[in-house]
Amino acid sequence: MSITGALLAGVSGLRANATAISGISENIANANTVGYKRSFAHMITSSASNGEQDSSGVLSVVASQVTEVSKTGGLVATQSSTDLSISGNGLFVVTENPNETNYENFFFTRAGSFVPDGDGNLINAAGYYLAGFPYDIDGTLVAADRGSFAALTTVNVLDPSVVAESTSTIAVRGNLPSQSTAQSTPPAPFVTSSEYFSPLGVIERLSFSWQASATVNQWTVSVNDASGAALGNVTIDFNDSGSLSGSPRAFTNINNLSVSPASFALDPTTGIATISLNNGATPQTIEVHFGSVGSFEGLTQFSGDFSAAFEKDGTNTGVLARTEFDGEGTMYGIFDNGFRRPLFEVPLGVIDNANGLAEHQGNAFVLTGKSGGFQLLSAKGGSVGTINSGALESSNVDIAQEMSDLIKVQRSFSVNASVITTVDEMLDETNRLKR
């Protein structure tokens, strides 16, 4: 290598170490940045002489920056349910604008400090919007190509009111006191009622009358609609011996007392009454489960007190009260009527080579030829991480390591500067040879 080559090599050393110290400075500055990924410089020899030490070529060095995207930071608990972090592999998908359609504006990040903006869209501190797959109103996840951004929409926590769901099933649980039957003068009936939801979300009630019979272990149940009009009745006989003692033995005398289009019917084997209610252009149908023959799943008859409880489905119209995330990235809406349904799935972007991603402003990353392809997968653990609500991932920067690297780079820079100074003196001495 010539004297001039040595000078150029020293200059390349200064330039490479300046690049390295720039990365270290950035790491130290972002030591407390949520989801920040440390970068460092690889020193790579660039040889114009093809390794021939006696040639006049220049052996120089360049610094290649590498970002440790796959190295995770520690988790820090927060008080916000929309603060999200990832345990394991994967990155959040974020966009530059809400409901973005330009695929060039889709990015990946581990910075999960999301808060709702004025429209309820979740946005992080860097100004990027969280993307997810929406659920339909019936709780079905939208069909999506997991290798594309096409089906993603911005996750929103201001979902409008949930559509009311009419009641379709009422299950009866309770006990009829056996001592009330077989009396010469039957006691007054027990009267109870169960609320149900109409197709418009209106709360109405079915009333039940439980009349003990003069016949031992026999009861007559009558059902009336919300206006008090009779729908129908049925006689229930109970077993009084053996292992099935206290369970329904038979359903008989099934009478439809309603006026069309309302109706009342009962399956004597399953103990399920099918009731049609005249409360709309199309009658509402409700199944009332009294309990099947020979089972203890519904009504029973034992000595003691009367009891009757009703379990129904359906809901009235509700307003979103809050949201919550599970570990698989599903965001649920909790409504003020007690209803809970999934609203979005937040997928995790799994990159073929995450460390090949390119840095983008705002602590985000973009795909490159080195990163390979991606899949948007459900956060279920294993090869894909899980999502933690109420926690943030801290920077993966180790200050002790950065300070050690800073010392090494500083020394290397200083030595390269000395090389340039020495070569300059040698060139000056060479120039004086002709004098």
What is the helical fraction, as a range of percent?
10-25%
Number of helical regions: 2
Given as residue ranges, the uncertain stretches (5+ residues, pLDDT < 50) are 50-56
Rg measurement, Å = 37 Å
**Strand runs, count:** 30
What structural class is derived from the secondary structure elements? mainly beta
Roughly what is the average pLDDT, rounded to an integer?
88
Distance between the termini: 26 Å
Quaternary: single chain
Major sheet: size, sense and barrel closure? 7 strands, antiparallel
* Overall 3D shape: rod-shaped
Q: Give the strand content.
A: 35-45%
Write the layout of secondary structure elements.
Elements: H1 3-29, E1 39-47, E2 59-67, E3 75-77, E4 84-87, E5 92-95, E6 106-109, E7 115-116, E8 122-123, E9 129-134, E10 153-154, E11 169-177, E12 190-197, E13 203-212, E14 218-224, E15 230-238, E16 248-256, E17 263-267, E18 272-277, E19 284-289, E20 299-302, E21 307-312, E22 320-325, E23 330-335, E24 340-345, E25 348-351, E26 358-360, E27 364-366, E28 374-377, E29 386-389, E30 391-393, H2 399-431
Parallel strand pairs: 11-19, 11-20
Antiparallel strand pairs: 1-2, 3-30, 4-29, 5-6, 5-9, 7-8, 9-10, 9-24, 11-21, 12-13, 13-14, 14-15, 15-16, 17-18, 18-19, 22-23, 23-24, 25-28, 26-27
Explain the overall architecture:
With 435 residues, the chain is mainly beta. It has 2 helices and 30 strands. The protein has helices at 3-29, 399-431, and strands spanning 39-47, 59-67, 75-77, 84-87, 92-95, 106-109, 115-116, 122-123, 129-134, 153-154, 169-177, 190-197, 203-212, 218-224, 230-238, 248-256, 263-267, 272-277, 284-289, 299-302, 307-312, 320-325, 330-335, 340-345, 348-351, 358-360, 364-366, 374-377, 386-389, 391-393. The strands form 9 sheets. Strands 5, 6, 9, 10, 22, 23 and 24 form a 7-stranded antiparallel beta sheet that branches. β18 (272-277) and β19 form a beta hairpin. α1 (3-29) packs antiparallel against α2 (399-431). The chain starts with a helix and ends with a helix. The model is unreliable at 50-56 (pLDDT under 50).
